[in-house]
Each structure stands twice: as C-alpha cells, then as structure tokens.
Amino acid sequence: KSTPHFVLKLRGGVKKRKNKSYTISEKNKHKRKKIKLTVLEYFKVGRNSTINRLCGACPTKCSAVFMASHFGRH
Question: Which Gene Ontology BP terms does the record give (predicted)?
C-alpha cells in the first residue's frame, strides 16, 4: 500500500490577520500653543522710549536667540 503524495502550489502565503482591538485609547500628542504677538513678551519699552530685554540672550555668539524663562532657574 502506497500513499499518494500531492504537491499543491499555495498562493498568497499566510492568511490575513485579524485587526487588534485596543482596550486603551492612544496617547494625545502635545500640540504647540500659538501665542499672538509673543515678541511683546521679550522686550519692555521704558518712559524715555528705551528698550530693555526681558529674556536672557543665548550665551553663545547668536544674540538673536532668547533663552526660555523657566520657574526657579537662573
């Protein structure tokens, strides 16, 4: 008694997997807050029309970049 061996050509490979159903919702990404006229917070105009910088400038050679003002730093 011999058992016949059939060779079938399978097309497409593995079956499609079922989509995962997540129990926890995805994280909300941080959105940048747009503040109008932010430049007014960087400078203060005095009585004699003198302009004072409120934020510290970058310590390297780029004087146009302002440092952030964090609570409890500097």
Answer: translation
Give the CA distances from residue 42 to residues 11, 22, 32, 38, 58, in Å, rounded to whole numbers and listed in that order.
66, 45, 19, 7, 13
Q: How far is CA 63 from CA 7, 30, 42, 48, 58, in A?
A: 75, 29, 13, 24, 6
Tokens for 12, please give them: 């497409």
Mean pLDDT of the chain: 78
Return the structure tokens found at 39: 């430049």
Query: Sorting pLDDT into bands at 50, 70 and 90, what band is 59?
Result: confident
Tell me the three state secondary structure of residue 39: helix
CA distances from 24 to 20, 21, 27, 31 (A): 12, 9, 9, 21
pTM: 0.41
